[in-house]
Structure prediction request, 535 residues.
Amino acid sequence: MSRNVAVVGIGHSRFGRRTDVNIAELAFESIKQALEDAGIDRKDVGFVTVGSAGGWYEEALPAVVINEYSGFKSVGTMRVEAACASGSAAVKVARDMIASGETDIALAVGVEKMSEVDTLTSVELIGRAGSYMWEFENYGMTFPAYYALYAVAHMNRFGTTTEDLARVAVKAHKYGAMNPLAQFQRDITVEKVLTSQVVAWPLKLYDSCPLTDGSAAVVLASEEVARKLTDTPIWIRGIGYSSDSANLSKRDDYIGLRASVEAAQRAYSSSKVGPEKIDVATCHDCFTIAEIMAYEDLGFCRKGEGATLIREGQTEIGGKIPVNLDGGLKAKGHPIGATGVSMIVEITKQLRNEAGRRQASIKNGFGLAHNVGGTGHYAYVTILSRDAT
Amino acid sequence: MSSDPVLHSRRSLTLRFDIPISHTREFWDGLKEGKFLVTRCKKCGNISFPPQSDCPRCMSNEHEWVELKREGKLLTYTLVQVTPASFVDNDPYIVAIAEFQGGIKILAWLEGAKLDKIGPGIQVRLETRVSKEGNPYYVFTLPQSL
Ligand SMILES: [Zn+2]
Prediction:
């Protein structure tokens, strides 16, 4: 029988262009906060998982470099990779180690440092994240180009417009401006999005998440330990996961991410809750089209109706299902491996009622984090709750 | 821009891979001869693109090479304006996914097309090419009328 697991400590660095810190110093910012928030020290931690895609910073083995810098000795550790969902995967491994009884306390850290190489090299490294041989070698695919293939198909099939996509970016910036840790801190307009540079038609610069440096960390604990450490444990009720083909040419269609649909179904079923009970969510909005598809894939609306939700403001505070009140990947920033952990930090804050001006109203006590790796290559959906069962 | 001091590393790293193609050699050689070949499993009949010597359906390694009909239907596409570092010398290019006989889908550049003249559903043709460095590849082209 598996044990209940709670988030008992959270930490989050400022996201942005962080030329002031290296990878270990950046991770340390979140690790220290998370341990202090949990009221524990390093010797209490049985295992450290580090979510990081890597390749754009100088260290090849980030887990050991980070642990050494942070003063961990002899701790069990690994780097976890699931592309942009590495953070969620790191949380899942840490959760499973506690649920299985292997350890009582585990730390999941997500970190990425993307500004140490030039921008086009970053574009190249992310563009290779698919099937190198069949999509990159001869055809030079980029991350926005992958999602643009979905955008064109979705727009053609359902009448989603570039204005609808722009509304997602405007919402992201609106909440990003309320989050002091976000990379972008100012409002934008639909017109600003529509007149920004085309990166991969029809997606423009302001449809796209930025390149970001950042870290986030969570301390997880077993029920027995969690109840001693805090009065406000936030319980991990279920984690759903799935994956899809490396080659986009092997996908069934281009109007949604099958991996997201399946991960959501597994998360809902393992936590015995449906989308209608979710009070607040973070959705993987690496590009504006991704958020609209996520609404549909997660069951917040029917397939093809994602644009209606954003047009009606249903994913803002006070709407049917507030999404990305931290600014999302678009405005908060998307340090690849940190994003999944950052989402768990945000949902934990929301469920603890600690989100300040951007606090959602929590009625049922459930929050959801949806984290996609690559272009629907990996998907993780984590459901958190104020109640253990 | 930030003025934080950084150590500009003296050690640069160039990665260039020698990618094994012995299991798909017929495909690459075929392109040079103007043929577009895909693998068909001799045990279960499954057709694979990208070609692969081991069948992903039944795991048999007995396969044969068959030619794919060149006429396909455009499913989706994009114009890549901001290109990766290793493509900086290229003009912006249209990448498309098209569907062929038996539901086989392929991703490639769509040559000679203008964005305002195309849309999902139009016919495209699969053509073989050889780069000036001698590397074979393939592209989509439009019927003369477009
Ligand atoms: Zn077979």
About this structure: Residues B 41, 43-44, 46, 55, 57-58, 60 surround zinc ion (CB under 6 Å). The longest strand of chain B covers residues 71-80. The CA atoms of residues 74 and 98 of chain B lie 4 Å apart. Chain B has two domains: 21-68, 69-146.
